TrEMBL record:
<comment type="similarity">
    <text>Belongs to the ABC transporter superfamily.</text>
</comment>
<dbReference type="GO" id="GO:0005524">
    <property type="term" value="F:ATP binding"/>
</dbReference>
<dbReference type="InterPro" id="IPR027417">
    <property type="entry name" value="P-loop_NTPase"/>
</dbReference>
<feature type="domain" description="ABC transporter">
    <location>
        <begin position="6"/>
        <end position="229"/>
    </location>
</feature>
<protein>
    <submittedName>
        <fullName>ABC-2 type transport system ATP-binding protein</fullName>
    </submittedName>
</protein>
<dbReference type="InterPro" id="IPR003593">
    <property type="entry name" value="AAA+_ATPase"/>
</dbReference>
<keyword id="KW-0813">Transport</keyword>
<dbReference type="InterPro" id="IPR022501">
    <property type="entry name" value="ABC_Gallidermin_ATP-bd"/>
</dbReference>
<dbReference type="InterPro" id="IPR003439">
    <property type="entry name" value="ABC_transporter-like_ATP-bd"/>
</dbReference>
<keyword id="KW-0067">ATP-binding</keyword>
<dbReference type="GO" id="GO:0016887">
    <property type="term" value="F:ATP hydrolysis activity"/>
</dbReference>
<dbReference type="Pfam" id="PF00005">
    <property type="entry name" value="ABC_tran"/>
</dbReference>
<keyword id="KW-0547">Nucleotide-binding</keyword>
Length: 236
């Protein structure tokens, strides 16, 4: 029997009378890279904000390691949703020190995560002078400080150049190899195709597909079929 680190069961969410998530039931296996795909506005970020405690479902439930989700689950979760929250006048080390103190982690953990994301040599350079790729990596370093079992990355490749995307891809593969489950939300199919073991496709607030990545599968065709099908349903 497969173990799931995170599940949602019939999760619904609406804003101002408009349904944004319609009975979403995800099953995310431990130790995988799960690609959460969908067009812009499909509801991906809304769902991820529920996993971070920023939003609550109107209906349904969220389970973490088989238990009802609570804010205590954040102790085992690393989050990078939308843009990294950084103090641009501080160095990479100083940014992490602020978060380390809040988490109560030992000071040596800063060197460990800076080494993981290859930012140990930035010295006194302030975060405001970092490239977009460096800022993303610093955001990921902050998300790793608490030794998470689950790492959630929302559109992490946005604004990155090809070199930055390649670095990010290698990082994510490395996390999965260490046993960290990674959820990557994206609308960039080619990137998810190269790193994900499992995928879920959301369109019009509906989970239209969920399953393992199959050898030789045409992800673009599958994505297009799911999106078109859900749009037809929404119109009807």
């Amino acid at each position: 029997m497969q173990d799931f680190i995170l599940e949602t069961r019939g999760v619904c969410k609406s804003f101002h009378g408009q349904m944004v998530l319609d009975h979403i039931s995800l099953m995310i296996p431990e130790g995988c890279v799960y690609g959460l795909l969908g067009p812009n506005g499909a509801g991906k970020s809304t769902l991820l904000k529920m996993f971070s405690g920023m939003l609550r479902p109107d209906e349904g439930e969220i389970l973490f390691e088989g238990e009802q989700w609570s804010r205590q689950c954040l102790v085992k979760t690393g989050l990078l949703i939308e843009q990294p929250s950084l103090y641009e006048n501080l160095t990479a080390r100083e940014n992490l020190e602020v978060r380390r103190l809040l988490l109560g982690e030992p000071r040596g953990r800063i060197d460990e995560v800076l080494d993981i994301v290859d930012l140990k040599d930035t010295k006194k350079k302030r975060a405001g002078q970092f490239s977009m790729g460096m800022k993303q990596r610093l955001g990921i370093a902050a998300a790793l400080l608490n030794h998470p079992r689950l790492l959630i990355l929302d559109e992490p490749a946005n604004g990155l150049d090809p070199f930055g995307i390649q670095e990010l891809r290698e990082l994510i593969r490395g996390f999965a190899a260490q046993g960290i489950t990674v959820i990557v939300s994206s609308h960039i199919l080619s990137e998810v195709e190269q790193i994900a073991n499992y995928i879920g496709i959301i369109s019009e607030g509906v989970l239209g597909y969920q399953g393992g990545m199959k050898q030789g599968e045409d992800l673009e065709q599958l994505f297009t079929e799911v999106v078109k099908k859900n749009r037809r349903k929404a119109i009807c």
